[in-house]
Design a protein that fits this description.
Blueprint: H1 2-20, H2 26-36, E1 41-42, H3 47-59, H4 72-83, E2 87-92, H5 96-100, H6 102-113, E3 117-121, H7 124-131, H8 137-153, H9 168-182, E4 185-186, E5 193-198
Parallel strand pairs: 1-4, 2-3
Antiparallel strand pairs: 2-5
Length: about 200
């Protein structure tokens, strides 16, 4: 019982430290490092994109989460449409609204950007496959462990709410490598990794 109380106290202290200063959070550290990297394209939010995202939400056009009152998914999509002209796109996210609406989103992306939505996935290893890159065996191992943990806890794999990601360090390092080599965009408030790629003929 004392061990349980001790561990609970340690976890509570750690979480409070992260809440007080996001720079103490390993995941936030990785994102802040990416945001500061000159090789990463940062897409700025605009009033026009917010207006378009709000209209998208009101119309119920994807990507949209019907159980949310915010326009995060809609805003991300509007920013991508405005920023990725003549580029192909890969989206890595645990948010099901992109995958659930892939045919509609792919058509809209092509119509508005002259690019292709190549892939929506929650696995970074799928990006390597799509790009014909060798897949790091450690990444596969991390993804398998995460799937096992997610199944045991009844959490969706790749979910932004997935707790305590014990293998996050390896995962973050791989995200960093992919972002530096793939020149993706980081979107404000987004836990998705967006890869804008030179258009394939």
């Amino acid at each position: 019982m004392n061990t349980y109380k001790t561990k609970r106290k340690e976890i509570t202290q750690y979480l409070n430290k992260i809440i007080a200063d996001e720079r103490e959070d390993p995941f936030a550290k990785a994102i802040l490092t990416l945001a500061a990297d000159e090789g990463v394209t940062r897409i700025k939010t605009t009033d026009k994109a917010i207006d378009q995202a709000h209209k998208r939400k009101l119309l119920g056009n994807p990507p949209s989460s019907t159980d949310k009152y915010t326009i995060g998914d809609e805003l991300i999509w509007e920013l991508l449409l405005a920023s990725l002209q003549n580029q192909d796109l890969i989206v890595v996210t645990g948010d099901g609204t992109y995958e659930d609406n892939l045919p509609l989103l792919a058509e809209e992306f092509h119509d508005k950007t002259n690019g292709r939505l190549l892939l929506v996935t929650d696995k970074l290893s799928d990006v390597d496959k799509e790009l014909g890159q060798p897949i790091n065996p450690k990444l596969i191992e991390v993804e398998k462990k995460e799937e096992e943990i997610a199944r045991g806890m009844d959490w969706p794999v790749g979910s932004s709410y997935f707790p305590f990601r014990p293998f996050q360090k390896e995962f973050d390092h791989r995200i960093y490598q992919l972002i530096v080599s793939g020149s993706p965009g980081l979107l404000p408030g987004s836990e998705s990794v967006i890869f804008g790629l030179p258009k394939k003929d």
